[in-house]
Amino acid sequence: MIIAAVLLGILLVALGVWQRRIDRRERARVVSAIEEAKSLGLVNRVLPAADLLAAAKELAGKIAANGPIAVRLALDAALRGASLPLPAGLAGEQELFALISSTADMREGLKGCDVVVMLRLQSERMRGALLPSAGEYFKHYGLTPEKLAYAKADAIVMHPGPMNRGVEIDSIVADGVHSLIREQVEMGVAVRMAVLEALSRNLPNA
Questions:
Q1: Strand partners for 71
Q2: How far apart are CA 43 and CA 26, in angstroms?
Q3: Nearest to 110 by CA among 69, 75, 55, 167
Q4: pLDDT tens per residue, the chain (206 residues)?
Q5: ∠ CA 169-171-173 to the nearest 5 degrees?
Q6: Which residue in 86, 83, 157, 89 sits closest to 118, CA to CA?
């Protein structure tokens, strides 16, 4: 988890301070514990005390580039989980993950994303007036260049097709440099053909 790296950075900074305050024997015990943690995969970097603050700030900057709600909830999971039994801690993480994976704020959802996947609004399967209008939907949930700017600079945009331009996605985005939609649709046809062929060969009475 991202937050594990945050706590690790804080922990290493703290250890750097503690090393100036403890005697030689205790210092050896702490170093031994760090090496054991590294061998178990609990620690992935061990740095000199002089480099710890810069490394922690660099890591904090990478974490801060992600969605703020996700980062806050990840921190909450780490802090609460530290005092809980493993099953209870994992259950708490699952609850928080459900909150992270659902948001009504598209900008929050897009922030820090590597890949943005849009889906078609399937109005033919919708009964009743679930939406005021297609224009209202596009205003809040349509992918525009302005909203895409919240994602990472090299983020890619995907859509299984067919697209409703001006409803779930702006044509500028659909045809822009971030879009891999044409390639996705083309490869999707090939994948479906391969799956159908595999099924027809192996299913009885096919």
A1: none
A2: 20
A3: 69
A4: 334 444 444 344 344 444 444 556 666 676 678 778 777 777 777 888 888 889 888 988 888 877 777 788 888 888 888 788 888 888 888 888 777 777 778 887 888 889 999 998 887 777 666 677 888 889 888 999 999 999 999 999 999 989 999 999 999 999 999 999 999 999 998 999 999 998 888 877 65
A5: 70
A6: 157
Q: Is 34 left (phi over 0), alpha (psi -120 to 50) or beta?
A: alpha
